[in-house]
Amino acid sequence: MSTNARSAVSKPRVERPKAQSACLLIGCVRAFPSREVRRTARPLCEHMFVRDEATILHADLDAFYASVEQRDDPRLRARPVIVGGGVVLAASYEAKAYGIRTAMGGRQARHLCPQAIVVEPRMSAYSAASKAVFEVFDDTTPLVEGLSIDEAFLDVGGLGRVSGTPFDIAVRLRRKVLERVGLPITVGVARTKFLAKVASGVAKPDGLLVVPPDRELAFLHPLPVERLWGVGAVTAEKLRDRGITTVGEVAELSQAALVSMLGRASGRHLHALAHNRDPRPVLVGRRRGSVGAQRALGLRRRSSEEIDASLVTLVDRVTRRMRAAGRVGRTVTLRLRFDDFSRATRSHTLARATAQTETILATARELLSTATPMIERQGLTLVGVAVANLDRHGAVQLTLPFDRHDASALDAALDEVRERFGTAAVTRAVLLGRDPGLTVPLLPD
Question: Which fold has domain 225-274?
Answer without folding.
Answer: DNA polymerase; domain 1 (1.10.150)
